[in-house]
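Q: Convert this sequence to structure tokens.
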Amino acid sequence: MSDFVSFAADVGTKLVAAGCQGGGDSKSKPGIVRRAVDFPSLMVGLGFQPAFTFYLSKIERFSAVSGIYSYLTGKAGLDGRVKAELCEELERSEGAGYAGYVAIVLYALNKVGESVSVGGAEEDIYKSLLGIASKELTLAKERLLSEYLLEVKKVLEAMPL
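A:
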């Protein structure tokens, strides 16, 4: 199995493990799935930095990015707080999914060799994310990132929610 597929399967498995129901209008996809569908094409059209900052502009609680990222990377378990954050990101509401998807992007950035550190108070997390957004990725890393995120898109679209 390719590293891209293994990565996406890991993300999908961890999201499903939260046991969320994806509440809201059942005719629409969960927020994080919609974000996973939109981001790769946005990144191809605009580049990583503008796509990433657009997603940052939609986040309501930066602490959710940190909690979900820590869970995805194995630095934290699936406690009540992280489960609640994940379930919020899987809701079918309009603004859901941005924090969770940014956490997935950070996890993928780790896989392409970028150093990622987020944690602390809301303001500290925000500053860390801006630091990541202002870092220019090489074309090779951006292509690799795109491969990881395209596989995540496929896996999340198939999630049983």
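The radius of gyration is 14 Å.
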